## 1
Amino acid sequence: MSFDRLIDGIVKMQNPTVAGLDPKLDFIPDYIKENAYMEYGKTLEGAAAALFEFNKGLIDELYDIVPAVKPQAAYYEMYGWSGVHALQKTIAYAKSKGMFVITDGKRNDIGTTMEAYAKAHLGITDVDGEKIEAFGADALTVNGYLGTVKPVLDVCKDSDKGLFILVKTSNKSSGELQDRIFDDGKTVYRTMGDMCENWGRELPGKYGYSGVGAVVGATYPQQLGELRKTLPHTFFLVPGYGAQGGGAADVAPAFDGRGLGAIINSSRGIMCAWKKEVGIEPRNYAQAARREALRMRDEIVAYIGQIKK
Amino acid sequence: MSFDRLIDGIVKMQNPTVAGLDPKLDFIPDYIKENAYMEYGKTLEGAAAALFEFNKGLIDELYDIVPAVKPQAAYYEMYGWSGVHALQKTIAYAKSKGMFVITDGKRNDIGTTMEAYAKAHLGITDVDGEKIEAFGADALTVNGYLGTVKPVLDVCKDSDKGLFILVKTSNKSSGELQDRIFDDGKTVYRTMGDMCENWGRELPGKYGYSGVGAVVGATYPQQLGELRKTLPHTFFLVPGYGAQGGGAADVAPAFDGRGLGAIINSSRGIMCAWKKEVGIEPRNYAQAARREALRMRDEIVAYIGQIKK
């Protein structure tokens, strides 16, 4: 019903970051792929088995220092239904280790269909009386172009979960639509941000942040700061740190005076850390990920100070 | 690279409609579900087996009179990875019958991730040298909020496929953002429509329509007519006919003088036709769907006349 569980984890670990799990085959050490191909061949099943094994290793090394993971749905769908199976297993494994799971799916549709997405990713599916979790994530990213956030709010109310709505995305072309100005003088992203504040009233949280968050890219630090001031109850999911160019100074404006208010994502930086360490044994890829996660945590906490409740 | 194949089918069958495959368990006759539960139990696998069997029956009765199907991804994801497997099998089966398949996924993300979605749904996945189709649809619906359509265009160029971008959606709340007016006096939906025309230049087609289509709801006939005039190269996918309230008179403005320019979707109307026929044997659900599809075709063609090349 809010991001309280996520924020509890951030405070406990003193770490406002999330590890993005967007596993391309290129990121995965050969020994994992070879084992998977030996069992399933060079097939989508084989690729999916490698993805899951890679993720499992990362989660084992990260769960005690990083409060959340964010699997990106596209990189699982690329490997067909087998890839989507690996997504489901990744979510279940991360949850079994106590991590908060944000499925980055940017789902959107008209009301009745949005309800199906909300049930699929956050809620419960009813199979003629049997209640089953299809994917069971804790939060889902959502695109608000259709104005149909309500069905997701309803599922979140029932189940202590949350959603992040795209406000200002990290890509270079995000301005083409999002920076355009309406006839009332407000930009699209500000307008979408204000909608987050309104929708969020339905999912209040103990830290002052609702269960309706906003995606705001690290690559736009000025907008991050502006939105932090104007959206006091909206928690930010901040992509774009690291590989996309955002640094600790860029993300600092996303936080409030307590060091709360945002969680910063790094995907390639963490997943591919092993490729940047000289002389590392590929079997130690997850320890390299852990070192990078700690470095990132320390770099950001140096800017925002101790995180207080 | 365009919608030529889709339009070929529309002209050949004299039918500008698409059957939406959004199968909820409620829509499926009991005998299909009972068979599936007997084999897999009341599980996500059982539900997915029922979905596919239901779809297969519909496709068998529709493929010679309806040129295309549009499975809605949400209703498959609701049944987990098993449901997504049923989506993949549905796409493959419809294609084996010669139907044009539009996956309604409304996917969107930053550039590199959008590329993964495009490969997943329309293109080819590379598993260390093996080239495999993950889902293999002919077209994908896309949400343009991020301004990252380019990677989908690139995949379509390589593979004779197309995309439909959300412009003016059929839901009641679509106006909250899409009808807002920019400081240049244009609405959001008009602006997005103009982007479709621009992007479409990269995927020209022999009928004058590009491979970049637009989703425009049947529930907004005035906007349909306005957009038909201002977007001469953009083919429309029109949801909202039937169950959502749009009728043949409402969708008529979507067509040009040749009876081309749009394809009208009906989902529940076709899938649930058997529930409305008095005294029908549930085993004949697909014949009822065929009767409704023919009725819908005749109703629309009565407004637009013979469809000419």
## 2
Amino acid sequence: MKDLKQYIADNKDRFLDELFSLIRIPSISAEAEHKDDMRRCAERWRELLLAAGADRAEVMPSAGNPVVYGEKTIDPAKPTVLVYGHYDVMPVAPLDLWRTEPFEPVVKDGRIWARGADDDKGQSFMQAKAFEYMVKTGQLPCNVKFMLEGEEEIGSGSLYGFCEEHKEMLKSDVILVSDTSMLAPDVPSITSGLRGLCYWEVEVTGANHDLHSGLFGGAVANPINILCKMIADLHDADGHITIPGFYDDVLVISQEERALMAQAPFDLEAYKRDLGISEVHGEKGYSTKERTGIRPCLDVCGIWGGHTGEGSKTVLPSKAHAKISTRLVANQDYNKISQLFKDYFEAAAPDCVTVKVTPCHGGAAYVSPLSMKAYQAAERAMETTFGRRPIPTRSGGSIPIVAGFEKILGVKSILMGFGLASDDIHAPNENYPLDQFLKGIETIPYFYKYFCE
Amino acid sequence: MKDLKQYIADNKDRFLDELFSLIRIPSISAEAEHKDDMRRCAERWRELLLAAGADRAEVMPSAGNPVVYGEKTIDPAKPTVLVYGHYDVMPVAPLDLWRTEPFEPVVKDGRIWARGADDDKGQSFMQAKAFEYMVKTGQLPCNVKFMLEGEEEIGSGSLYGFCEEHKEMLKSDVILVSDTSMLAPDVPSITSGLRGLCYWEVEVTGANHDLHSGLFGGAVANPINILCKMIADLHDADGHITIPGFYDDVLVISQEERALMAQAPFDLEAYKRDLGISEVHGEKGYSTKERTGIRPCLDVCGIWGGHTGEGSKTVLPSKAHAKISTRLVANQDYNKISQLFKDYFEAAAPDCVTVKVTPCHGGAAYVSPLSMKAYQAAERAMETTFGRRPIPTRSGGSIPIVAGFEKILGVKSILMGFGLASDDIHAPNENYPLDQFLKGIETIPYFYKYFCE
């Protein structure tokens, strides 16, 4: 790779300026008030793809937020890499925990601090800049397509239809995604599996209006107490999920494979120290990495009801709400799980309340075989720049559309991400180390090289 | 009582105008931003007491919100009635459930609709207008004192000290309180017992910051799930509270007394229909009226944590919170219960989280013996105007300061309230029937008459 390091060093400041122009647009897909920002962010991506060397780039309509599509064809006979990323970001609440403005990127202590610095503006932008390097230095070995969506953080609802509609346009030999993490700055790894996802909102209703907790307390069901009991009952004492049939399709990993995975370096004490916890907590019989890698889980992502403001208002509320999600593993069908939960939770409601479950979104788990040419190209690329063979890992996170790509487009994805656990994606003070950003740009051209050999 | 009905009919519109001037001041004691409104409301009460015929009236300082004090002495040798009420009101959230503005009273369908219409502006103002009638028509049979506080809805924290400091000024033979309900418009009743109260805020902390629910879910404790389990464990399957020692001091009511209380008219089907519920819910072995009257209970008044806004954000939050209250019955010491709960709940926290319990406020239960002269005067007064002997009832609600009066001032209180269960106090669309307001003004002078005979 001719002049690769020099090119990055010479253009580093411009790369950051361009990235920051994306970050400054608060493209929060979960919040309707940011509708205009979604389009603005897509338009900005289109400009940046053209500037990086795409032959054409467009902001294309979907059923929801627009999709940015760009391409450069050098020879139809050569392979095609489809780069996938997303330009939408997570909400930023609670704002008071941010040490800097979420949408005004700051470089400090060797990191970029901002919402989207890693997930996924920072990571997907590395792809654009590696592409630019290959185009500008005449070293692009294949055709490249870019597809950036605006609904990943809310389940990629519209992208499935977009892929169905544009199968021909999206034809490719592999889908390259930078939206995952490495084990540590000096321990490269490639995500060979992702968990799936299912998300519901539940509402428990007691009396038809808020009541005085003295006059009615003890005689009329309190929907918060009932909701708490129903949530508590979703796990047994060993941390297993109690929904009947929930584990039926879970892919059971062999003891040998578990032993291999256990070789990935993991310092439980440092993990606990970083999180400020005395003990980890999860399903009996599995290690911490297994609990997030090969086992499903169920978490309440939000709960609210009654008086949540200042002071000690005594009220017996009419309603209580929760947002509940599960992470699924290979073979679990999210539509089936979604229905299982809804049926179980609604039926579990005692007669004194009514319970409504609204399924929100879901996505399948994904496994990438280590025998794939693309996996091996990514492995060699990371070994070249990091000086160490990357470890295959299973991520606890979900990129539901990756399973969708396989189903709709018939193309496997390779998840070559450069994030770190300390990047606090989805949380206050999201950040992305500059070194990871630059090392990512340096690594990606090698992937192209080895994939096209 | 000379010209009593005529006086009320002639002055009704003015009575309402004056009451509305109190209601329009949003004197929410639980919200710091209403500090100025507390003083404004106290000042307005002072003017109204003077206008009603008090010799003197003052807004007096306390450790917290000011106390309105007024008096009229006709003869030091005669008995003294101390009227107690409160000018503070509950918060109004959730605002979107109100059909009218909470602080702009509207008379519709024979009811006054506003926050404070009943609790306690409407009820305490009946006392002022009955007093005015007796003064203006020369029929006041004894000395009268008024004391209106601004912290009843947050536990009367400053009034205990105020009473200690002003024992001499507050000397009286009975304390008359209109802050309770009757069984029905045609079923007068007198509250012979009140429940006590204990209130805590709890905070459960897992990791030191919000985490990605995919990357950490299943391996790190979710404080919402843990809080739900801890709340669920506060009751057993029979609806008994599980805190060790919680029931130790509960006054056990004899089977005969339970049988007597059971004679009060109560239509369970109508109760359920009014509340829109299929089943009541409470402690095994007790009727609905007993569950609120003679048994303590524990309710979550508020809960919050994680993502509570729009959309399906996947987050494993750092913290979860709840506001938890119990209602106590006679003999239970709220300070003891407060400590029992704190010790139990904090110790119940699993190692994977930390739990902090902050006691908020509390108050003792109260029982008024039916043999008291004041009880009998109230009974005769209500029988005179309602045409039916009132039934003694135990209220599930709490007026903690009433037990405080007995302890500090050595004076018993008589709880002659005219509210109805349908008044929705503490809830959206609080209201007070005009008929109850006017009938209350008509009844109170008879209390004075019979009490002084």
## 3
Amino acid sequence: MRDVAIIGAGLSKFGERWNSGIKELMAEAGIMALEDAKITSHEIEMLYGGTMASGRFSGQEHVAALMADQLGFHNVPAVRIENACASGGSALRQGYMAIASGIHDIVVVGGVEKMTDVTASEATTALGGAGDQEWELFQGITFPGLYALMAKRHMYEYGTTEEQMASVAVKNHENACKNEFAQFRKRITIDEVMRSKVVSDPLKLLDCSPISDGAAVVVLASMDKAKKYHDTPIKIMASEQSSDTLRLAERESLTAIKATQLAADKAFRHAKLAPKDIDVVEVHDCFTIAEILAMEDIGFYKKGTAAKAIADGETALNGKISVNTSGGLKGCGHPVGATGVKQAAEIVWQLRGDAKDRQVKGAEIGMTHNVGGSGATAVVHIYKRAD
Amino acid sequence: MRDVAIIGAGLSKFGERWNSGIKELMAEAGIMALEDAKITSHEIEMLYGGTMASGRFSGQEHVAALMADQLGFHNVPAVRIENACASGGSALRQGYMAIASGIHDIVVVGGVEKMTDVTASEATTALGGAGDQEWELFQGITFPGLYALMAKRHMYEYGTTEEQMASVAVKNHENACKNEFAQFRKRITIDEVMRSKVVSDPLKLLDCSPISDGAAVVVLASMDKAKKYHDTPIKIMASEQSSDTLRLAERESLTAIKATQLAADKAFRHAKLAPKDIDVVEVHDCFTIAEILAMEDIGFYKKGTAAKAIADGETALNGKISVNTSGGLKGCGHPVGATGVKQAAEIVWQLRGDAKDRQVKGAEIGMTHNVGGSGATAVVHIYKRAD
């Protein structure tokens, strides 16, 4: 298999983008990524587009062909990838495979979600499609409810506190303040999180990532071609994915996401690296408890110990390990199909040294972690600045 | 790149499956395919699942993870592919690439759509998401309308008649009578098509493929492993895909689907074959005019001449070339995400000599052709019985 690198990255501004639809968001991120890679649209050989529920949010399926059309990639194979909130990360893995295999040299991976054209209730119902419709959503549980069950059990087993969970949100908002693309550039306090409205006990409003509009695009190239386009290609050291039961009730554990554990383990083995080698990581913090689970399941902390470490500041910008420097899903926003690709863009900027006020000093190796649903899909990538 | 073969195929019964949901349909097709391949679920390394609008039809996204869960493929990477009505064909191409690349040895490709849980109006709206929501559907045009425009122009330019279009439906219903999985095992006459209710002039009810429930599954293996599972692996000689503008109004021509022309041309070149070499082909006859366009765009007939040839019986079972022996989308049914995979299953059975009453005598080389929307995606595969 061939080495694959990211040679360009672009984002739209994340947030409530009332004046922009899927096409405008894609164009905003896509043009930025193509310009970054100094590449023209006619050099693109294939496109993967991640989006979760564009049919229900915007009445639009067939979104990858629309992206290819909108970005001027005439007649290339275009494939939409949908794996709930891991659609972006899964699309990135497909792009990686298409190049690693030798089938294509230059592939664009995009992610987009336009969520604010429907009511909050409709959005919650659409997002419920990430779980088991018959056995979970139809019975009345939504995603905050599923993660609340995980949080409750984590509190019971390990003594994790609501204040510790709140500290995840506080840190991610702090990072988001330094990210021009972020939805929430606003500091919050533990006290504000604790006093925010209960969504599903113990999760409160400020424990939850928001409804967002946004798009993200990266340009991938085989390593032998990458240097022609960008001085600092970012090599993808590993690209791994696992699945698990769609239903939370059928999992082996409520306090671990097995798909994350398996994908991370495969990724570390493939890259011949260990958790201690990672300088900067974007993890899937759809809810604050999810970041705690991720830090433990990837192997940065032993089970039951991450919450205290986060509350102690170990994962703040330029802490022991810098986590969610973009602001994460909580602070940067969570347009679901875009998130996995946005994570990759953030790591590209960090490893290039282009992350401005939120730059992790001396960052050389990065990671992204993208989860679908309550853990039925997990995708893990490891990245390194190419020599 | 490595050679890839199909070692197992399975279908659910197509039709109005009131008592079955996505899970039951997938299980029905999946178990048949696994048994056919004499393979156990724990040998499967990856799954691609094609479905177009499960979110709108069933409230269920994240369908590939659900399929993997349902079929017992524990923890494998599972990826949903959505390319409108070409979701199944696109999923097959991803499965092919995953093995050709050397990344995986055994991959399952499934397709499913459960369309009858919504009203006909809701289904038509959901299917409209295959076109440009803002520029087509929102303005009031649905898919019969888009294909009616193509039919009208084809009639104007080439003198194609409504009776010739009707002959496509008559032939495909005739074939469907011999297919135990088909939705419509019922002969119809030209006169019945002509007298059926106008849907969008000149297309009448019996020119249109139906709303259907169904699933299809194939098992792919690297050629070196294929013979261990099945005596007659079917080799994939080519797997090609192209895209075009989502909007019909922006195409170069209304009487040709350029994505089909490009994908077919690439496929013939890759396989070092020509249209005359194909013994049996499943083409995308979502409407009768679509089969006429396909026969011309793939290169079986010169532009403007296919309609007469079909009416003359050249494409009937064991005619000059046997087209849509399964009954096609018109006769067998069109559960959109399943269709592209069902086409592959039909060709597998034809090339093995297992197609019973609808067997094409001496069939050695087959083809499938799957279209998304009004032609924004086209996927073409060529198959040959392995020696």
